[in-house]
Every structure is written in structure tokens, then in C-alpha cells.
């Protein structure tokens, strides 16, 4: 399995969690919404940590590139973390309207982010780090 295949599978899992959250948002069942929100937020944060703590440093060390794609990805992760904090507040306040807006913005941002990773960064990582690096990713977080 390649780095791209492994991390793209994580992206697809997050897509499923987005869908599950959107399905329960319409019912305004706050127990279900809270559970679905936490599952999505926790998985996104875990995925960001895998990239930031393992993949990005390895890529930067091997390539010598520190101000390129990994810098952009970290900035986008930070933007999505801000949205996750807004979503946490909306869930705590049972504010479905605000949460819908956060989820919509987060979904669009995440989709655009994933395209960049899947089409640019991950192939570069596969080329530089090789498939054996997937084991390190699987052991992280």
C-alpha cells in the first residue's frame, strides 16, 4: 500500500463521517448530532496529527522543502481547527443553524484540501519516502 492509498482511505472515511453528521443534523437529535460531530472532529484531528507529526517532517527532511506544500497544508489544518472549535461551540449551544454553516464550510474546505494532498503532496511523498513509510503512518497516533 502506498502513502497516497493509505491517507486517501482516511479521507474517504472522513467523507463518510461528514455524511453521517449531515444525516442526523436534520433530525435535531442532539445526542446523535453530538456523537456524529465528535466522531468527525476527532478523526479529522487525528488525521491532521498523523500528517503534521509524521508525514510532513519526513517529507521536509528528505526533500529540503519546508516552505512549500506542507506549509500550505498546515495553514489549512489550522483554518479547519478554527472551524472545529466553532462547531464545538455550536454543538454545546444546540445551535443547529450555526452548526450547519460550519459543517458546510468545513466540508468544502476539506474537499479542496484533500484534492491538493491527493493530487500533489501524497504522490511526492510516495516518490521520496517509499511505500515502507506507510508502516510509520499506521503506528502514529
Automatic annotation (TrEMBL):
Cross-referenced Pfam families: Hemerythrin (PF01814)
InterPro entries xrefs: Hemerythrin-like (IPR012312)
Designated name of the protein: Hemerythrin HHE cation binding domain protein
Source species: Hydrogenophilus thermoluteolus (Pseudomonas hydrogenothermophila)
Residue ranges of domain Hemerythrin-like in the record: 3-125
GO cellular component, one term: plasma membrane
TM helices/strands, residue ranges: none
Amino acid at each position: 500500500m502506498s502513502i497516497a492509498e493509505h491517507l486517501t482511505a482516511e479521507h474517504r472515511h472522513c467523507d463518510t463521517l461528514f455524511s453521517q453528521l449531515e444525516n442526523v443534523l436534520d433530525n435535531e437529535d442532539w445526542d446523535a448530532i453530538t456523537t456524529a460531530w465528535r466522531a468527525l472532529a476527532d478523526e479529522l484531528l487525528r488525521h491532521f496529527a498523523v500528517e503534521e507529526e509524521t508525514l510532513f517532517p519526513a517529507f521536509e527532511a528528505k526533500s529540503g522543502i519546508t516552505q512549500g506544500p506542507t506549509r500550505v497544508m498546515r495553514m489549512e489544518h489550522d483554518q479547519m481547527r478554527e472551524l472545529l472549535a466553532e462547531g464545538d461551540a455550536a454543538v454545546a449551544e444546540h445551535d443547529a443553524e450555526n452548526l450547519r454553516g460550519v459543517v458546510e464550510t468545513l466540508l468544502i474546505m476539506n474537499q479542496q484540501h484533500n484534492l491538493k494532498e491527493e493530487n500533489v503532496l501524497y504522490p511526492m511523498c510516495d516518490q521520496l519516502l517509499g511505500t515502507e513509510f506507510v508502516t510509520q503512518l499506521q503506528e502514529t497516533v
